[in-house]
């Protein structure tokens, strides 16, 4: 009797499995993302009128097989302090398991707010999100066009990017890195991916396409970003640095990991042997010069990751700083320690300009007569090829 019951039960169980196989599969759980930030999140300047990166991201994630909803919570003109005040209202409609895509800080840089203050505010926003079960993806802000009124060199924005990377690593949060992608991985990005004209900060339609792909790659596990720097000391652009100062570089990888043997640190073009600690997620390099530095010091780095294909942090200058007491020849306009063709180009771009012309360059007016002409060219020629220290 027990055998007949067991056989009957087995047949019933098999029938249930067969019936289940014929029924439609349950829809995959929806992944909800809250895109939070300023006008770049909101989509200002989207020449294709597609709703900035959030709408594009939703389409990309859907195309990659994810049941995704991306909510655009961008607000033009907002600083991180404003975001910290607003985030509670935005999170009121969130549900546990949502993901906050946190890209903010561009307007802080405009206002010359310190990177430390910006990152503190970003961490406070992330903590508020965590308190309601929402995880945070930290996002570096996109670089500025070289002609931007504030930080056209992207020195401060680069420092901010490094600190955002450290923030993400320190708290075990994910990172999307459009700063790296736009500035170093995209040829001619400023001409191709930005509005341009009077606007030096916002992407155009093509730029928003690229920005959405940066997010989509990170969220779907596509590693397209090389190792990136965090803290770099002395900071790029530092002046009056003591000659005995040590060089420190933090290197991160948020994808496949750093290929440790590939890492090379160079000082003034020569490979040095720093003390190295850490692992393939975070590497710290510390170099104490055997003889004091002098003049302008250039620090470069080369590294690659373990992705297939590899992503290369090509031999790239990561810091240039000036040792205390350094003096320059007047015609060394770019302050690289030598009067050469680069300085000649600076003078050529301003040649013929009077003091009130837009292209007038005060430094190139070597004799101080208010016009950049053959007399200034003659003064440059007299020191051409000379080193300034």
Overall description:
It is a single chain. The protein has 389 residues and is α/β, with parallel strands linked by helices. The chain has three domains: 31-219, SGNH hydrolase (Rossmann fold, 3-Layer(aba) Sandwich); 228-322, Immunoglobulin-like (Sandwich); 327-389, Orthogonal Bundle (Type 1 dockerin domain). Helices cover 34% and strands 22% of the residues. The chain has twelve helices and 15 strands. The protein has helices at residues 2-22, 39-42, 52-63, 80-91, 106-110, 115-130, 155-170, 178-184, 189-192, 205-219, 341-350, 374-383, and strands at 31-37, 68-74, 99-103, 135-139, 174-176, 194-196, 199-203, 228-233, 247-252, 264-267, 270-272, 275-278, 282-287, 296-304, 312-322. The strands form four sheets. Strands 2-1-3-4-5 form a five-stranded parallel β-sheet, sandwiched between helices. Strands 8-9-13-12 form a four-stranded antiparallel β-sheet. Strands 11-10-14-15 form a four-stranded antiparallel β-sheet, with no helix packed on it. Helix 4 (80-91) runs parallel beside helix 6 and helix 6 runs parallel beside helix 7. The longest helix has 21 residues, at 2-22. The termini are far apart.
Give the SSE layout.
Layout: H1 2-22, E1 31-37, H2 39-42, H3 52-63, E2 68-74, H4 80-91, E3 99-103, H5 106-110, H6 115-130, E4 135-139, H7 155-170, E5 174-176, H8 178-184, H9 189-192, E6 194-196, E7 199-203, H10 205-219, E8 228-233, E9 247-252, E10 264-267, E11 270-272, E12 275-278, E13 282-287, E14 296-304, E15 312-322, H11 341-350, H12 374-383
Helix pairs in contact: 3-10, 4-6, 6-7
């Amino acid at each position: 009797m027990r055998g007949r019951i067991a056989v009957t039960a087995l047949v019933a169980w098999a029938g249930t499995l067969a019936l289940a196989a014929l029924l439609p599969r349950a829809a995959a759980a929806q992944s909800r993302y809250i895109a939070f930030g300023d006008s770049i999140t909101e989509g200002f300047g989207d020449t294709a009128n597609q709703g900035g990166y959030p709408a594009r991201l939703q389409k990309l994630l859907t195309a990659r097989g994810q049941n995704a909803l991306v909510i655009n919570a961008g607000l033009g003109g907002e600083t991180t302090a404003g975001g910290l005040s607003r985030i509670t209202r935005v999170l009121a409609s969130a549900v546990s398991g949502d993901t906050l895509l946190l890209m903010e800080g561009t307007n802080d840089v405009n206002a010359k707010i310190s990177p430390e203050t910006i990152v503190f505010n970003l961490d406070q926003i992330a903590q508020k999100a965590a308190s309601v079960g929402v995880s945070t993806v930290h996002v570096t802000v996109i670089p500025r066009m070289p002609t931007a009124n504030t930080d056209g060199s992207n020195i401060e924005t680069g420092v901010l990017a490094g600190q955002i990377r450290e923030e993400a690593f320190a708290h075990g949060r994910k990172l999307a890195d459009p700063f790296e992608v736009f500035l170093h991985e995209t040829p001619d990005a400023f001409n191709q991916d930005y509005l341009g004209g009077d606007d030096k900060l916002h992407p155009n339609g093509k730029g928003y396409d690229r920005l959405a792909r940066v997010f989509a790659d990170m969220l779907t596990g596509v590693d397209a970003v090389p190792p990136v720097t965090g803290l770099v000391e002395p900071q790029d652009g530092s002046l009056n640095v003591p000659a005995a100062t040590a060089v420190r570089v933090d290197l991160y990888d948020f994808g496949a990991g750093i290929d440790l043997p590939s890492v090379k640190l160079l000082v003034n073009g020569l490979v040095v042997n720093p003390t190295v600690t850490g692992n393939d997620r975070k590497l710290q390099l510390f170099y104490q010069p055997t003889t004091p530095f002098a003049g302008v010091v250039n620090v470069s780095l080369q590294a690659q990751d373990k992705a297939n294909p590899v992503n290369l942090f090509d031999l790239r200058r990561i810091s240039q700083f000036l040792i205390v007491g350094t003096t320059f020849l007047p015609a060394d306009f770019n302050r690289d320690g030598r009067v050469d063709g680069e300085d000649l180009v600076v003078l050529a771009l301003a040649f013929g300009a009077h003091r009130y012309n837009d292209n007038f360059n005060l430094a190139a007016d070597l004799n101080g007569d208010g016009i950049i002409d053959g007399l200034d060219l003659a003064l440059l020629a007299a020191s051409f090829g000379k080193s300034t220290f």
